[in-house]
Amino acid sequence: MLGGMFWALGNLTAVPIMNTIGIGMGMLVWGTTNCVAGWAAGRFGLFGINATIPTFPILNYFGLVMVIVGGFLFSQIRPNESQSSSERSPLMVAPDDDLADDLVGGADDSDVVVPRGGAVPTLLGAHRNQKRILAITVSLVAGVFYGVTFVPVIYIQDHPELYPLAPKTGLGLVFSHYMGIFCTASAFMIGYVIVSRNNPFASSRLIGPSLTAGSMWGIAQSSWFVANDNLSQAVSFPIISMVPGVIAALWSVFYFRDISGLRNLRLLSIAVAITLLGAICVGVSK
Description:
Membrane topology: Multi-pass membrane protein
InterPro entries: Sugar_transport, TMEM144
Organism: Caenorhabditis briggsae
Family: Belongs to the TMEM144 family.
Mean pLDDT: 80
Low-confidence stretches: 83-87, 90-124
Order of helices and strands: HHHHEHHHEHHH
Structural class: mainly alpha
GO molecular function, one term: carbohydrate transmembrane transporter activity
Largest sheet: 2 strands, antiparallel
Distance between the termini: 29 Å
Strand content: under 5%
């Protein structure tokens, strides 16, 4: 459950990060620290877990450096300030908008109201560079939480003398991991309801996609447990933590279009190539 709590704390920052720097760049930046934190914990045996030494350490180090370089290049990409209304829905709508019927909860006079067809403002559009730096910093911190999410699980597996009744495989600990996520997210949800005075804001349009995305994530995260058992963190983290960011970057280019321009696309292409090269080297190093 402790590992699930770490994951949930990192995930709470996802929406503010994506609203500021986009889904592609956000995932790629936090994926970098996720990769480094997870790799370091497995490679050097941090936090009491057993260290795992790859068959080809030099190749493993080289791949990690490539992944870090790719992450740095991703941080240099400057996403577009806004998207068109067909690609993005406002977080809050005017009362006369027909979307208002789809909202659970209401908005008082102090809430920000966005007309149909307008892009959602981020902190009134002021100090965009400062917000970008803050979003990148928060992304790095979120990546650390993601990177240590498996440490409690692996610690239990590495110390059977302390936990004689614990499952021997990672899949046996998936339920407790997910319960940690559920309890942490529920605690923050309860806090949000209290702060909003029982007037939470949520769109009914998010329910179906959220359930679908959560199911897909649950399958993928369970597969990560299996990968850790068979490859070790030192190999699985650089591959699994960075490849989803590359896929998200492609969504940002071809669908959300928050990454465009010759400079950004050139940087993105180079960063993706370097990251994939690093992931391949890490995988071969096993």
